[in-house]
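Reopening this one. Same input as before:
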Amino acid sequence: MSGAAEGVAGIALSAVSIAALFTTCIECFDIVVAAKDFGQDYELLCTQLSLQRIRFALWGESVGLVTGPSLRPVPYDSRLERPDIQPAIKHTLDCIRLLLREANVVSGRYGLVSSKLEGDDMLASTGMSIFRDTFDSFKNRLRKNQAQKSAWKVTRWAIHDGPRFEVMIGRLKDFVDGLESVTTSLGLLAQQQARLREEIDSVSDVQSLQLLRDSSSNSLRGSSAQQDVSDTASRRLTFVITASILEREEIRTEVDTENLIS
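Same output, byte for byte:
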């Protein structure tokens, strides 16, 4: 991009509010991924994509860009408008928007092609379904506050190149890390991490918890945040499995007791 073009882009970006950019990113994040055969590697990548999506939404919640799960109004954090913070936030949000749109428009660049998810041979990703209900709730709460409610389209992707897809997710993770880093000085990181642990603790599906544990422990340049996700998913997985075993034993005991009585 030439200097003149960069200047025009910078002026255009400065005229867009943080809230508008965030809303556009949420719309771009409305993704479904399908494939003819989902191997474990693809599922782990899709899980990472789902994880970055919920991290992004929770970041928005923490700064008041969307109401929390209790539906109580969360005031917009005006500190985002500080001259030392606003440009970095806007730039990062725009990078996320461009990355997701580029992945959708430029066929093959990130190992993805447009998919209509039609046919018996196309399967939806389990990894992408993790946190899907929470994301839909975020999206619906965000849309309630929109003055003009245009139709949102779900982006449908089919993976055909795992390494390129991994590159895209790695870039996306870096951008979300950047947002959290910028707002760390505002004292919001602990709140964001606590909300993510709450979301993981709400998952009860064994396969989903295994994917969260494994995808966060051995991929995408592991960090302390990634390790925290893995540890939380591992603890939750142990709890869910143990509770299931105890429930089966309780049912078996009740059946044995009834048989003795009869």
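So the earlier flakiness isn't reproducible anymore. For the record, The chain is about 65% helix and 5% strand.
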